[in-house]
Amino acid sequence: MHDFFTVNQLAEELGVTARAIRFYEAKGLIAPRRAGTTRVFDRHDRGRLLLVLRSKRLGFSLAEIREYLDLYDADRSQLSQVGLLLAKARQRIAELEQQRRDLDQTLAELHEVAREAAEALAAREATRG
């Protein structure tokens, strides 16, 4: 593994676009150093970016991700960070479970609508023939 990465190397390694990395940089979630006009990312930047990408996959907002990363910078013992992570993870779990219940209800209703429509079509075809 490298000690330093360009934006393109990091993008290729992590399977994201260079544009996505520049977006997270513009949002202040990562702060690479510059070597002339080239962004130079170190292992710390790579680790932060991995946390950002994982957090986005889990559905956290950029503001929540920033709060989490800021706590890490402020509290090296990571107790505050882990406490926040636990609270946010539980909140996200509750949101997803509610979405699942809502989705299950919507699917059940759609199945009922489809069943009723199929029966109506079958009844009309039976009266025609």
Task: Describe this structure in a few short sentences.
The chain has helices at 7-14, 18-26, 43-57, 62-74, 79-128; strands spanning 4-5, 33-35, 38-42. It is elongated.
Question: What is the element layout, followed by pairings?
Answer:
Layout: E1 4-5, H1 7-14, H2 18-26, E2 33-35, E3 38-42, H3 43-57, H4 62-74, H5 79-128
Antiparallel strand pairs: 1-3, 2-3
Helix pairs in contact: 1-2, 4-5
Terminal residue distance: 73 Å
Q: Cα-atom Rg, whole angstroms?
A: 24 Å
Indicate the overall shape.
Answer: elongated
Uncertain segments of ≥5 residues (pLDDT<50)?
none
Strand order of the largest sheet: 1-3-2
Per CATH, which architecture of the largest domain? Orthogonal Bundle
What is the typical, i.e. mean, pLDDT?
A: 91
**Total number of helices:** 5
- Biggest sheet features: 3 strands, antiparallel
Helix percent band: over 70%
Number of domains: 2
Q: How is this structure best described in words?
A:
This protein starts with a strand and ends with a helix. It is 74% helix and 8% strand. It has helices spanning 7-14, 18-26, 43-57, 62-74, 79-128; strands at residues 4-5, 33-35, 38-42. The chain has two domains: 1-61, Orthogonal Bundle (Multidrug-efflux Transporter Regulator, Chain: A, Domain 2), CATH 1.10.1660; 75-129. It has a three-stranded antiparallel β-sheet with strand order 1-3-2. The protein is elongated and about 80 Å long. With 129 residues, the chain is mostly helical. The model has no long low-confidence stretch (mean pLDDT 91). It has five helices and three strands; from the N terminus they run βααββααα. InterPro entries: DNA-bd_dom_put_sf, MerR-type_HTH_dom, MerR_fam. This is MerR family DNA-binding transcriptional regulator. Keywords: Coiled coil, DNA-binding. It holds the Pfam family MerR_1.
